[in-house]
Description:
heterodimer, A: elongated, B: 6-stranded antiparallel beta sheet, DUF305 domain-containing protein (chain A), signal (chain A), Ferritin-like (chain A), DUF305_CopM-like (chain A)
Amino acid sequence: MRVSVAVPSTLLIAVLLAAGCSAGSPQVAGPSPASAPPPVAPTSEAVPPQGSSGPFGATDIAWLQLTVAMAERLLPVLDLVPARTTDRAWRRLAARVEASHRADLARSHRLLGVSGAPATNPHEGHDMPGMVTEDELATLRSATGKTFHRLLAGHLRAHLSQSVRIAAAAQRGGIHPATTALAAAVVRGGTTELARLDRLDRPPIATPTAGIAAEPADRDAQAA
Amino acid sequence: MDRAAPLSAIRSRLRLASAIGALLALLGTYIVSTTARADAAPGINAIRVAEFPADCTYSHRLPDDPIIFPGLPGASHMHSFFGSTVTNAHTTLPDLVNSPTTCNPRVDVSSYWVPTLYNNNVPVEPTIATFYYLGEGVRADVVAQTQPFPLGLRLVAGNARAAGPGESIARWSCLHAGHVPPSKNFVNCPAGTMLESYLDFPQCWNGRDLDSPDHKSHLAYPVNQACPATHPVHVPKLRQVLRYPVSGDPSRFRLASGPGYTMHGDFFNAWPVEEMSRRVRDCIRPVIKCGHDGRPI
Lengths: 224, 297
């Protein structure tokens, strides 16, 4: 039973890595995650023979759940792109981001399955930093041309910046090897995608308007 | 001081009652024992409400949540923190113990946090934030067996993901305007009054876990005035009451988590074990209203 699960999992990761633009590090695909689902904090003898997986920490699980929630919020935005713009550069960028996010989503779901934790965090709200709200999605559905490009750029930038930010924290604070490896891949892929986005749409410097930009400023005001 | 005089007057009356009781002892021991017990108790005039409070003013804001998103700074919507002044995404129990606190009493170094309230996108913090520990909502014999919250307990109440009032246990009302009906969403408070939020945490613990995957299910709400068999340990009911210095048109208000019905509260217990045990023993179990010092009012 363990073997029959482990083999397709390894294959799946290899395929997903090949499909996603965030692939790049061989060691990401190397350690095959555990096939036997350990509890959240298993004893060392519960780790399967491969010994490559290890226990999940609270940060690992929280990050996987948040990554799932964020990817699921971005995909409907990306789905709109082919119908709302004919610009090939924007379409290409959206397709790349979508491929990497579908790959990350599949890996996150699988790792959560291994951990035994629920796929979604029952607490996190509807309007988390970096997430597109229902109202914003409705606005996107009726926008075209330059307006659509501008709105799309804002949402992509907010999402990717937040993804990179929390993935970097998960890379440092997580303890599960395959999870921190995925976090590292998200940091690399997200950074690359942000650079591509900046070439298509110069980032705003003086007038940050997105909620994600307002939050740190608010924090600074408090600290002062 | 204004309380000291009536107290001494009552005490002298008690001594008289005690003397009379001693005389009546010739007729029976029951009266004597009752009177003697009342005379010995510090709170003969105690208010018969099982309660002790912590008043914790606003400390700081961060988009962090050490229960929901441990180790992930910036992962959360904006939270307003009360109690311990050190809480951030990386906070664990040892960080809270001995940390500075905004609470009265100072011994309460627990951390409490809620989604930040915005008025026209400007953050507003409660001018009064009270965390009541209560013995109510269950039978008297259950109250009498209340146990303290275990040190390090992490608990979330309310529904940050509520898609409508039907999925929420939040309660909004107006301080000094009782005629405005409470609602699960923001209410329109008359000028000069304050918008207030009530949230009750579950009070039946499974007796085992300091946290759970959804950060809620290690505790449960009572059923038929008692704790269910799955969560047999009765702990104090934590009631969070926040008073915000805003009133009027509620369409200007939002929480960091969304509409008013997404109100929720996070509690990370760091009360010194002895301080909470004493309050449970002296205030909750005997049904006596206590002050911040955990002594009968």
